[in-house]
Amino acid sequence: MNSEIRQLQPQQLWNKFADLNAVPRASKKEERVIAFMKDFGSKLGLETIEDEVGNVIIKKPATAGMEDRVTIVMQSHLDMVHQKNNDTDFDFDTQGIEMYVDGDWVRAKGTTLGADNGLGVATIMAILESTDIAHPAIEALFTIDEETGMTGAMGLKGGLLDGKILLNLDTEEDDEIGVGCAGGVDITATRTYEVEETPEFKTGFAISVKGLQGGHSGMDIHKGLGNANKIMNRVLFDGFENFGLRISEIDGGSLRNAIPRESNAKVAIDAVHEEAFIAEMKELAATIKTELKTMEPELEIVVSKIDTPATIMDLGVQEGLTRAIYAACNGVYRMSADIPDLVETSNNIARVIVKDGEIKIGCLTRSSVESSKEDLANSLRAAFELTGCEVELSGDYPGWTPNMDSSILKVLDSLYEEMNGEKANVAACHAGLECGILGTNYPDMEMISFGPTIKGAHSPDERASISSAQKYWKFVLEILKNIPKK
């Protein structure tokens, strides 16, 4: 199936991407891709290192005539977000990604594509393997676990790298040169509750929110996309207010860095209200779909009868839970006052689980301003603590402060305009790149981020532009030729 991908230009890039996508590589399950990358470096006869946390470093000397250039670090992350549509039969632990060409796009069949950050990894692999690409001395840094904690970047110790310039290949618009990014913190609210036997004369319903686009909880957070957890909570809140709906289970969302596309709940209501409840839910579903019709045309809110659940959650806890989720900020909290159109601070209510006497709510808060990140984290903490939850803040990582005077920025900015006849968009982004973290142990290293155009990252709609990959590849080759002298 991926033979079609291997014929695309530039073949060096797409062949390495196909090789990589044959290897399962979920965050925190990178054992196979680490072994794959170490084997790749060793077979090339290059110095290959695995550090204490699992990052892989492969070093390649400069090509002839480039020995007087600054040593560079080329960096991408090995892990990918694993998401699939509900009706897709696919096992990420055992299967390689099934890709196909759709016009100018490479897509995957019902799953995430892994272009984030697989195209960056493939780029570096192609250059390491090449015999005819001019480049300075390269330290290829392949980090792990970028998507669920950035523990690879956090665990990289100082002294392993000698490079003075870092090229991060994890930006998703080919006209953008990244010079800064947001930091983030994981917020987890938990509590237990008493499980009650469902009273007589109740009837059961399953409620499903599906068909949402989902997307990257940083790069897409400002687009007004639907959040399945917030929509579900609105439906449950309305059902309780009007019909005394009682919650048995909720299972919504998935990863913290993915805007939730789906949520499912099991509930019970008094049987006498059945017809009125169904009518109310249809009306509410139509209202929500109308509100979101522009951004979420495929949204479905389905209410169907099921066997009455055996148990429901404590009423007081249910009221507190639905109010807390209603009150909790989701989406943009503050726009940057200094950089036009940049989201400064946001939150994604990514995961809501209610089952068997336990509640767990997972959020990812991002900000390019540490004090604003702390402010929003405290706001969310307060909302959840008011309903009796214990709240843990973890996985805190710093943002990346722009350096508009760096020598590598001047190289990329000038080359982009020369090659494309227009200026690049030099910008900070609201995603969490690893540059800020890597800079804590390598404070003197200049850093820049760029990449090919990728849409729908962190969702099964993820796709990579073929024409953009060609444009990006030429840009990479010119950058390597123009690295400053020592």
TrEMBL record:
Superkingdom to which the source organism belongs: Bacteria
Keywords: Cobalt, Hydrolase, Metal-binding, Metalloprotease, Protease, Zinc
Enzyme Commission number(s): 3.4.13.18
Pfam families, per database record: M20_dimer, Peptidase_M20
Catalytic activity: Hydrolysis of dipeptides, preferentially hydrophobic dipeptides including prolyl amino acids
PANTHER family: CYTOSOL NON-SPECIFIC DIPEPTIDASE
UniProt-recorded Gene Ontology molecular function terms: metal ion binding; metallodipeptidase activity
Organism: Oceanihabitans sediminis
The keyword Zinc is annotated on this UniProt entry: yes
UniProt xrefs under Gene3D superfamilies: Zn peptidases
Co-factor requirement: Zn(2+); Co(2+)
UniProt-listed NCBIfam families: aa-his-dipept
Domain (Peptidase M20 dimerisation) ranges: 208-294
Gene Ontology biological-process annotations: proteolysis
Entry's Gene Ontology cellular component terms: cytosol
Name of the protein: Cytosol non-specific dipeptidase
Family: Belongs to the peptidase M20C family.
RNA-binding in keyword set: no
